[in-house]
């Protein structure tokens, strides 16, 4: 059975590669240069639906919107929810692989910008079918489907430098690269309901979990940190960020959390918090967006898709963040004493 599955997989890969070569062969040369000063409508592709990636890309959204360029997004449901109510986004389209592209084609975009390094027949077909006047991609030098390829795979530079390279195409002068996160009225109301009746000096938010086990804080690390805060700072309130089912399963005492939490409530908690503790995940970039004091905890794992060092290119990258890089493979192996010491150092600087 495994032999048959492998044969089917190889067959599909062969035909995808063949179809991609056939499509590329139709593009003999790139079109004329893009008129970067005469752009009115731009579509940004963020199809992986990763919250952290979208927050970083939000600096590009802000850049275009502040220049009166209408910004549209094609992304997944999580990122669509994140950027609902954004004054900088004209419209968000949710990507569904087999759904008609006619509504997108009717927008007649001047430029499509694809932030991924993905090189597949499906992705190239999508960019082709969108029928924009021009298309920009990353590391797509051998794919003339993309009218402009930005070659960028630098392990020594932060991920924002990759996005700044888009800005440099459309403006001759340098610009501050600032993230943008909208405030959601429903999230404001829900977090109000959680904390408005409580009396506290500071709101300390802890995000214990990520999308990878090796980057998660353990229940014991979180519980001992909470005890440490309550012992030395009894007037402070500790709020945990995360999915209700996973947070409640950790069994942490002396904390509160939002029931039925969403990405919107996470944004609102970060916006209100005085101090945040989080491993390497989207919460780090939310903290950057609001310039919040942050203890960000990373391991040294390399990224699967590129082999780049995650704690360098995905660092918090702002002055009020304190980055702790652990030597062990698992963040959960960091000692409670070390975690609490680093937290105290951050708190003393606030």
Describe this structure in words.
- It holds the Pfam family Glyco_transf_9.
- Keywords: Glycosyltransferase, Transferase.
- This is Heptosyltransferase.
- One of its GO terms (molecular function) is ADP-heptose-lipopolysaccharide heptosyltransferase activity.
- The chain starts with a helix and ends with a helix.
- It contains 13 helices and 12 strands.
- Helix 1 packs parallel to helix 5 and helix 7 crosses helix 10 (about 265-270).
- About 40% of the residues lie in helices and about 15% in strands.
- The protein has about 350 residues and is α/β, with parallel strands linked by helices.
- Strand 7, helix 8 and strand 8 (about 235-240) form a beta-alpha-beta unit.
- The strands form 2 sheets. A 6-stranded parallel β-sheet has the order 3-2-1-4-5-6. Strands 9-8-7-10-11-12 form a 6-stranded parallel β-sheet, with helices on both faces.
- The protein has 2 domains: about 1-170, Glycogen Phosphorylase B (Rossmann fold), CATH 3.40.50; about 185-350, Rossmann fold, CATH 3.40.50.2000.
Blueprint of the fold:
Layout: H1 2-25, E1 41-46, H2 51-65, E2 70-75, H3 77-82, E3 91-94, H4 102-105, E4 111-114, H5 121-129, E5 134-138, E6 148-150, H6 159-170, H7 185-195, E7 203-206, H8 219-232, E8 237-240, H9 244-250, E9 256-257, H10 263-272, E10 275-279, H11 282-290, E11 294-298, H12 310-313, E12 321-325, H13 336-349
Parallel strand pairs: 1-2, 1-4, 2-3, 4-5, 5-6, 7-8, 7-10, 8-9, 10-11, 11-12
GO molecular function: ADP-heptose-lipopolysaccharide heptosyltransferase activity
Protein name: Heptosyltransferase
Keywords: Glycosyltransferase, Transferase
